[in-house]
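Example 3.
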Amino acid sequence: MYKYDTYDQAMVDARVEEFRDQVRRRIDGHITEDQFKPLRLMNGLYLQLHAYMLRVAVPYGTLSGAQMHALGDIADKYDRGYGHFTTRQNIQYNWIKLDEAPDILADLAKVEMHAIQTSGNCIRNTSSDQYAGAAADEVTDPRPYAELIRQWSTFHPEFCYLPRKFKIAVIASETDRAAMRLHDIGVQIVRGENGELGAAFYVGGGMGRTPMIAPLIKQFVPLDQFITYAEACLRVYNRHGRRDNKYKARIKILVHELGKEEYTRQVEAEFAQLLSQNIEPPLAELERIKAQFADPAFATDLSDQLDRSDPDFALWVDNNCVTHKTPGYIAVTISLKPIGGIPGDASADQMRLMAALAAQYSFDELRVTHAQNIVLAHVRKDQLYALWQALDEAGLGTANLDLVGDIIACPGLDYCSLANARSIPVAQKIGQRLAAKEQEIGELKLKISGCINACGHHHAGHIGILGVDRKGTENYQLLLGGCEGADTSLGQITGPGFDEDGIVDAVEKATELYLSTREGGERFLDTYRRIGMAPFKEALYG
Amino acid sequence: MKLLTGNDLKSGAVTWWDGVQWSLHVGDAIDVGDHADSILARESAAQRVNAAYAIEASKDENGVRPGHIKERIRALGPTVRPDLTLKPADPEAGQWVI
């Protein structure tokens, strides 16, 4: 994985000291909250419902064991013993003290981490495929390109004050595991006609109050023009994006209002102009980065067989493990969704355990997934049982990846000052209600947001739930048919909303209808797409 | 009734105006009537509170109750982590929020 060079470290260290001075001046009263707020937000420090919240960047979701261990230590030392992994593949701490925030950033800097650009109208953490480097279907590891974007976008003077926040995802497989087309820019690394690598650009996707699927605007950008093309996309947005209305300020609105063709025409004109300025980083820099993502030293001649005699282990393998590109290895997802638990939360002890297990079993590397789980990407099959036993003992062996219990949920009104309704209790109740049936139900991606900002990706859930405020009480809208994969689709609202218990009943009714009408090996989504909304409405409201 | 609430600058903790100072407990909050703006201006200028504002609330035999669920959750703590609320030993505390 990527290691900081002296420039990276110097920039992060300098930022810590700069923020330490800003905090000191705020506490001393030399600057007001209005002056301080944009400064703290640039360092990921929010003021949330109960306390300050610090959002720490995890570039493309990749962590070393030492980094995960440090995250656990920070949870103990500065917070209340836990952290929350987010749909942006980051981690948030909920109980931060202002005067300790610079010390946290200093501790993060020691393990090559920071909270820069985890808030504000800038380019946020670039997300990627959690199986990068392990997936059998990828054309290359997408993370070097995500890292190049990180370096280009960090402190980019032109893009620190965009009309609105900006999110980029990079994948390198036909199977989209990063909700790529629901980003401001989605990049897919592809092979061209002659086998050379290039980048397809999808621009103008997003969730929030106006969900849109990004259209393809460029089929193939040569890698020696990759950053130049991204710069052109951003420049057109920065020039014409709506700064007069924050609800219309995302690039998806610009692309929609201009039209894909006109937006693309302007990007191409800007691209041609930028090419003459030779702004592209040298390919040698990309090669330097790529060398740091080289495959670990996989053992050869390993057996591909697994002893499945323990039924609980076999169930976990079937649910939580996926094929690895190298024989004898497997990619493991550690579920942070125990039945009745809080989706995405991990205790400090669990973080340190996962760090130790990564060091022992997966070349000292972990991934945070956008579904709020953790991946150990390179595990030997002959060591898988021992790994599972250690996870299971720590409450990390839940076998429910992509099942109805593997719910994405934003912090909701329990923590977030923007939320209108609680998300977590709904997730807990649904998980408990359907736990006994989840294997029978099979793949069903359920996603819950506590407000229209859609941090819980409800538009992309096979079943989505949106919490709203109805005259001061929580109300929940139900959506069906969303999907974030290669066949991306947006969920449709079923009808009138439900109260907290009613939405749990409604989800159960929807799954019962699915079970009684599915054909062959249909997933919930397949059945919905075949029979449409009407039967579900009848079951829910009839 | 009208309450004043904000956050402690250093800890970020939710606080309530009790007539003299800022308390962690909503039960200490007083009705500020028409004086919200002047108190907020004075206390904010003196940096005794951060990001403060006024809210509607009611009071009955059980004490002060903020009018909106968001403020009740602020007053108590996260309903999904009763151990981290201001009433960790009270199993009924979560019901007060809803």
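The mean pLDDT of chain A is 97. The longest strand of chain A covers residues 463-470.
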